[in-house]
């Protein structure tokens, strides 16, 4: 018996979601009275995983796995789960994790629940809470198979320190090569924070009038170390790239802080960003529905308040650095 | 090329979400059901393959008789045939097993599903189908070209996109980008009339146990009122000292 957790990394550095997943895995392991094994593919400094409760780390290092391949990564996780007799496998909500999760589930004949927000309500029966209807509700779902796969929602459980040994072991999974899907090129801005990883997201809507006005949005994002995002019509009109479109039919946002500028707060927009912890709205219309969903707001003109906010934040950052 | 588009029947995006029977069931009262938006992008791409490359397009849903209007809408948009597997869609794994059986029986080359359904947001059915039938799988697919049995797809990744080469048989989890919003088709009168006489076959399910069961639902706790400020100094102060997010 054990809890297996897949720990994601990029350029040999663990991502924050990896620490969150380990924290969560440790929580389940304590409920079950068992240990946490992490599995990492070309990962980072594994002692970092110990801080959040990894008892053991299976380290796979192989250049052939540098590019993510869902089938290969799923096989690695499934093999590790079998070797460790894992009864729970913890994955995350990153694009890669969501890609491989169904493959792991079929491989292990395991029930899989995505977007899990809390520790299991009970472990026998094994019941987990997860968000459904794009954050408009939560479901409590029983997983009935021997092995359970959990897709942890982003930024829901948080980081919990819980020192463990993180005993590193070289792991060479016995998997057959699969070249069915071959990556030919990757197009990724390396100097920008992604919406998926960002702690803060600055988002602009149709209220900004045109693409030429995004300079102040980008400046504010830079001051805050934030990712930039936009509402659907803004990407549909080509003011901003599709990759920035957030909401029910776009990317989900689960940041600590979401700043919505010139966005009305349509139900489809809110659904996608509701998992964010703190929401700030700047909008000229005090009747805009977004104010009902927000924590803080300024009823006012973006063209006046956004540059001011940026200047004051720069001063604040300089003082608090 | 034979294409199967998996259609999930979901509440319209504007629906109010409520539950009945002691919070154990989704309340369908007054709810308008639609083709899952991600699936509609896939269906529209399938129509392109039909018109430009002579593909045959079938649509399938796993669900009760109440989903038939949604399948008829897919026929009105232009699919050639519809299949309904007559069993309630309870969990992703059992739905995937039903769909895998349809794919095997029908000999489909390409299966298009959505990245996720907007009701249960499982994001699992297409991947499971691919793994069960041993086909290639590309998720969060935003572009798809097929030449013979070769396929080139672009997939959205965190922070960007990547281009992949793969081959049929293939399953994709699609989303906006497969076609643009402006390419989506509203069924016209002629399409709706034709849809009435297109085949909609109801099939019995294969054996598949549910591996997960939703036992109850709840809505998020109501939100406190917004705090309005009229200057950025107060906002920064609140974000720093109260919310502690900067
Ligand atoms: C099936 C479906 C799916 C959808 N999915 C999504 C989705 O995923 N994401 C999404 O965002 N939308 C989605 N939508 C669209 C959604 O319904 C709204 O149309 C959209 O979110 C509105 O975008 P907006 O807030 O930028 O624009 P608007 O609704 O036009 O709002 C602009 C706001 O800017 C304010 N404003 C104007 N001038 C200023 C100024 N100078 N300073 C400050 N504020 C100003 C206005 O008061 C207004 O509130 C979907 C719709 C459908 C039907
Ligand atoms: N009951 C169903 N019938 C047919 N296709 C489905 C069904 N449920 C899910 N799908 C397909 O699988 C995709 C992902 O759904 P899900 O895994 O439920 O998020 C959907 O976009 C559909 O293409």
UniProtKB/TrEMBL annotation, chain A:
Task: Describe the location of the Electron transfer flavoprotein alpha/beta-subunit N-terminal domain by residue ranges.
Answer: 3-195
Q: Which Gene3D superfamilies match?
A: HUPs, TPP-binding domain
Q: What is this protein called?
A: Electron transfer flavoprotein subunit alpha/FixB family protein
UniProt cross-references to SMART domains, sorted A to Z: ETF
Q: Which UniProt keywords apply?
A: Electron transport, Transport
Lineage, highest ranks first: Bacteria, Pseudomonadati, Bacteroidota, Flavobacteriia, Flavobacteriales
Family, according to the entry, reads as follows: Belongs to the ETF alpha-subunit/FixB family.
TrEMBL record, chain B:
Q: Where in the sequence is the signal peptide annotated?
A: none
Q: In what residue span(s) does the Electron transfer flavoprotein alpha/beta-subunit N-terminal domain sit?
A: 23-212
Q: Which UniProt keywords apply?
A: Electron transport, Transport
Against SUPFAM superfamilies, the record matches this protein to:
Adenine nucleotide alpha hydrolases-like
Family, similarity comment: Belongs to the ETF beta-subunit/FixA family.
PANTHER family per UniProt: ELECTRON TRANSFER FLAVOPROTEIN BETA-SUBUNIT (PTHR21294), ELECTRON TRANSFER FLAVOPROTEIN SUBUNIT BETA (PTHR21294:SF8)
Q: What is this protein called?
A: Electron transfer flavoprotein subunit beta
């Amino acid at each position: 018996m054990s809890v297996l957790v897949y720990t994601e990394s990029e350029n040999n550095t663990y991502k924050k979601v990896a620490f969150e997943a380990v924290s969560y895995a440790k929580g389940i392991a304590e409920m079950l009275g068992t240990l946490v094994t992490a599995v990492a593919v070309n990962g980072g400094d594994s002692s970092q995983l110990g801080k959040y409760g990894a008892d053991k780390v299976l380290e796979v290092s192989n250049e052939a796995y540098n590019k993510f391949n869902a089938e290969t990564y799923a096989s690695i996780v499934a093999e590790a789960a079998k070797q460790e007799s894992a009864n729970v496998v913890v994955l995350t909500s990153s694009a890669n994790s969501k890609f491989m999760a169904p493959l792991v589930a079929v491989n292990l004949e395991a029930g899989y629940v995505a977007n899990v927000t809390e520790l299991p309500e009970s472990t026998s029966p094994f019941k987990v809470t997860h968000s459904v209807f794009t954050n408009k509700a939560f479901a409590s779902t029983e997983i009935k198979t021997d092995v359970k796969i959990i897709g942890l929602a982003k930024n829901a459980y948080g980081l919990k320190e819980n020192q463990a040994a993180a005993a590193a072991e070289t792991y060479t999974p016995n998997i057959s090569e699969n070249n069915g899907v071959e990556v030919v090129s990757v197009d990724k801005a390396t100097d920008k924070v992604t919406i998926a990883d960002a702690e803060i997201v600055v988002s602009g809507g149709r209220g900004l009038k045109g693409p030429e006005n995004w300079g102040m949005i980008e400046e504010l994002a830079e001051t805050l170390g934030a990712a930039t995002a936009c509402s659907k019509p803004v990407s549909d009109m080509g003011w901003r790239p599709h990759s920035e479109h957030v909401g029910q039919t776009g990317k989900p946002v689960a940041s600590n802080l979401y700043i919505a500028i010139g966005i009305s707060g349509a139900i489809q927009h809110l659904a996608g960003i509701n998992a964010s912890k703190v929401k700030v709205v700047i909008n000229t219309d005090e009747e805009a529905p977004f104010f009902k969903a927000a924590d803080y707001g300024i009823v006012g003109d973006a063209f006046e308040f956004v540059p001011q906010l940026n200047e004051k934040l720069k001063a604040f950052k300089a003082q608090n650095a | 090329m034979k294409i199967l588009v998996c259609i999930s029947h979901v509440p319209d995006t504007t629906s109010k979400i409520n539950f009945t029977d002691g919070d154990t069931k989704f309340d369908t009262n007054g709810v308008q059901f639609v083709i899952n938006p991600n699936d509609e992008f896939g269906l529209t791409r399938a129509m392109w393959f039909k018109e430009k490359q002579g593909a045959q397009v079938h649509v399938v849903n796993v669900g009760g008789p109440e989903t038939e209007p949604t399948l008829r809408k897919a026929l009105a948009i232009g699919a050639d045939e519809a299949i309904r597997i007559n069993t309630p869609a309870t969990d992703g794994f059992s739905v995937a097993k039903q769909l895998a059986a349809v794919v095997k029986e029908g000999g489909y080359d390409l299966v298009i599903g959505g990245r996720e359904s907007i009701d249960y947001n499982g994001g699992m059915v297409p991947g499971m189908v691919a793994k069960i039938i041993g086909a290639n799988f590309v998720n969060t697919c935003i572009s798809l070209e097929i030449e013979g049995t070769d396929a080139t797809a672009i997939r959205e990744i965190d922070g960007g996109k990547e281009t992949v080469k793969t081959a049929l048989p293939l399953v994709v989890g699609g989303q906006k980008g497969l076609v643009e919003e402006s390419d989506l088709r509203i069924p016209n009168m002629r399409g709706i009339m034709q849809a009435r006489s297109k085949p909609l076959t109801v099939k019995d399910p294969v054996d598949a146990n549910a591996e997960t069961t939703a036992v109850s639902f709840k809505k998020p706790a109501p939100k406190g009122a917004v705090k309005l400020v009229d200057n950025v100094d107060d906002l920064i102060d609140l974000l720093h000292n109260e919310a502690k997010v900067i």
